[in-house]
Amino acid sequence: MRFLGNKESMTGEILKLLGDKKLLDKDYTFFDAFTGTGSVADAVKENFNIVINDKLEWCTKYAYGRIVASNIQFDKLKVNPFEFLNNNKIIHKGFFYDNYAPTETSRMYFTPHNAGRIDYFRDTIEEWKNSGKITNDEYAFLIASLIESVSKVANVAGVYGAFLKKWDDRATKEIQFIPVTSLETIFPFDGKVEIYNEEVENIIEKVECDVLYLDPPYTQNQYGTQYHLLETLVLNDNPSISKITGSRPTGPMRSDWSKEYKAHILFDKVIAKTKAKYIVFSYSTDGIMSKSYIEASLKRYAKPGTYECRKVSYKKYQNWKTKSSKKHYEYLFFIEKEDIDKVVIESPLNYIGSKSKMIQSLRCYIPDIENKTFYDIFGGGFNVGVNMGTSKIVFNDINKFVVDLVESFQKYDTYEYIKFVKRNIKKFNLEPNSKEAYMNIRNYYNSIDYSKRDPRLLYTVILYGFNQQIRFNSDFNFNNPVGMRWFNDKVLEKLVSFSRTIKEKKVSFYNEYFTKLKDVINEQDFVYMDPPYMLTTGSYNDGKRGFEGWSIEHEDQLLKFADYLNSQHVKFMISYVLEHNGEVNLHLNQWLSNRNYSVISIPTIPGRKRKEVVIINYDCPNGNK
């Protein structure tokens, strides 16, 4: 049947990809999460156990009927249902006759005769099921066959959102009850099939599978609206319907995957939460999400070197209204998913001194903290704390604006956050290196009393500032100059994945000078310290921005604080720089020489001429040195 986004022509490419990745014939389970008409699930069923899901029940019934077609015998029925139904002229004046033909209404989905025959077919199939004359597999096969038969005589332009005002030649032909697929040409199937009718994001964590295949809606088209009539046909529930189109209520059928930015948020969640080891993702070049966003998101959760994208030319579904000579392409993405404890979430804040590239190195030296509270007491962009697998996290920073910024990603709904940013980008006409527009929004932000400033507005300003840095003057006014960066897809991906992660964790936010945390930290906690470095200078530690700078006195307080934690049997880690551009921190070296703490060199980020270390007061976990 005709179906928006049908992957019938893509199944060969998908099978080739699965074969190239050596995933066939391994008794794996394949989860077709947006099954539609089941083209992909049906194509791969020889090689996998199958799980199908779709929010629309007509889709899963149709797909299931195709998959199990080889199991159909009709032994209890004693007749060939197709011959039986076609060898009479019975009509029932039921729901379709009354509502989708010009009988009681002016709707022209079907001729009166065909609508009456559809009611007869549907009633008869239901009676056979209720009387035990057909199995569940046979019932699904007959329902799928009814959907196929209906599609041959529907007076529509491909979908069922509206009927044509004149009779199409195909609609005037007498309906024939035909099998959804030829029983003589199908391959046998003896695997397992599991069915869901849910939003995939609501079930992704519980579905056991090895391969996840995603083929979500690409555009703003709502499939529930376009195929309402088939849903009514399958549910057989005689719903209240629209006076004009005859549509059942579409609210329960609407999908957020057809909405810009909501699709981005859901994609991140599904990729992060699936139990699948391998992910295959189909998407169109015409889709809501860009290739760059998809790539950034998939690479976030992929094992290194496993990401692949194939661009395939395909024939896009067209009806008589949408004929075009434009060539269309489909992307086929693939990843092998990384173990969740090795995935690194990055802050959407480009914070000076960020440890985002060092998370894996730091994790190697952090002990089991699952049931401890993790204190990130110089929180900054929160790259370290947000990546810790612990039940509770404390984020602290002396800069109130930074605290509010990081907390805002937890506090505000992610979709509304993105919409807020996009509205202000449009309102102030923000573009890279557009000084006038940038100064307008920066001045507007600074004109607001700093106690009432919205951190989402600050984030918008930051996105278009120089290197997206966070810089205030002594009057607490933001004073970073205009820059060449913008709210691009990679930043969007960081915002989405970071916001989801921080919302899932129990994070408390503090705005204190670090020594004041003595009274709340106890032996069961773990303290991570990434203070400003004596050998480097950033906008947060020069003492000229209305906040505490970082001097030898501050470093002494830090070292005494570490000694205090040690005396209280609190495990800590300090990230620091011992050498920078040939200069050595002699003061820190002297302190270390009189302590029994371990100093561990950490691989530096390429391009940085400095010696990064971590200092710990406990034995290295797992024998790391």
Automatic annotation (TrEMBL):
<dbReference type="InterPro" id="IPR012186">
    <property type="entry name" value="Ade-mod_methylase_MStsI"/>
</dbReference>
<dbReference type="GO" id="GO:0009007">
    <property type="term" value="F:site-specific DNA-methyltransferase (adenine-specific) activity"/>
</dbReference>
<dbReference type="InterPro" id="IPR023095">
    <property type="entry name" value="Ade_MeTrfase_dom_2"/>
</dbReference>
<dbReference type="InterPro" id="IPR029063">
    <property type="entry name" value="SAM-dependent_MTases_sf"/>
</dbReference>
<protein>
    <recommendedName>
        <fullName>site-specific DNA-methyltransferase (adenine-specific)</fullName>
        <ecNumber>2.1.1.72</ecNumber>
    </recommendedName>
</protein>
<dbReference type="InterPro" id="IPR012327">
    <property type="entry name" value="MeTrfase_D12"/>
</dbReference>
<keyword id="KW-0489">Methyltransferase</keyword>
<dbReference type="GO" id="GO:1904047">
    <property type="term" value="F:S-adenosyl-L-methionine binding"/>
</dbReference>
<dbReference type="GO" id="GO:0006298">
    <property type="term" value="P:mismatch repair"/>
</dbReference>
<dbReference type="GO" id="GO:0032259">
    <property type="term" value="P:methylation"/>
</dbReference>
<dbReference type="Pfam" id="PF02086">
    <property type="entry name" value="MethyltransfD12"/>
</dbReference>
<keyword id="KW-0808">Transferase</keyword>
<keyword id="KW-0949">S-adenosyl-L-methionine</keyword>
<comment type="similarity">
    <text>Belongs to the N(4)/N(6)-methyltransferase family.</text>
</comment>
<dbReference type="GO" id="GO:0009307">
    <property type="term" value="P:DNA restriction-modification system"/>
</dbReference>
<dbReference type="InterPro" id="IPR002052">
    <property type="entry name" value="DNA_methylase_N6_adenine_CS"/>
</dbReference>
<dbReference type="GO" id="GO:0043565">
    <property type="term" value="F:sequence-specific DNA binding"/>
</dbReference>
